[in-house]
Design brief:
Hypothetical protein af1432, globular, mainly alpha, single chain, 147 residues
Length: 147
């Protein structure tokens, strides 16, 4: 909501590059997200959200952390977030195939993305023919049965 209201007048389907103010808002979302998670009572998870756009080569944001300075959980979120974004339809572009998205993630392995996490994603995708151990249903059932 905060970002959308700050982008008033901009079309979400626009292919035009973001201006400096818009880019600053986009780059603030890990901080805002982390604060929301922290305020919801999950201070440890807030760190993962805060770091989920850091890159192993140090060129990420918001803090420019590199390699092992980034929590493993944030490195996992970074790969999953990027892969999901690439394979999802957007108003401004078509979804990439899983094969093409994996190729892109692989291309950025060791620079943008943690190499071991990329390897794990490839393993998960290769095993996709079998029934996954986790799904929205299994997580939802687990969450409701523990309350």
């Amino acid at each position: 909501m905060w970002a959308r209201s700050s982008f008033q007048g901009r079309s979400w389907t626009s292919r035009a590059p973001l201006d400096d103010d818009e880019l600053e808002l986009v780059r603030a979302h890990p901080v805002v997200g982390a604060e929301l998670v922290r305020a919801s009572g999950f201070p440890v998870a807030a760190w993962f959200v805060l770091e989920h756009h850091e890159r192993v080569d140090g060129a990420g944001y918001p803090a420019g952390l590199a390699g092992p300075e980034i929590t493993l959980e944030a490195r996992i979120l970074h790969v999953v977030d990027a892969f999901t974004a690439m394979t999802s339809e957007r108003a401004y572009r078509r979804a990439m195939s899983e094969r093409d998205a994996l190729a892109e993630v692989r291309r950025l392995r060791g620079a943008q993305f943690d190499a071991q996490v990329v390897d794990a994603l490839e393993s998960v995708c290769a095993a996709a023919g079998s029934e996954p151990a986790w799904s929205v249903d299994t997580i939802t059932r687990r969450a409701t049965s523990s309350t």
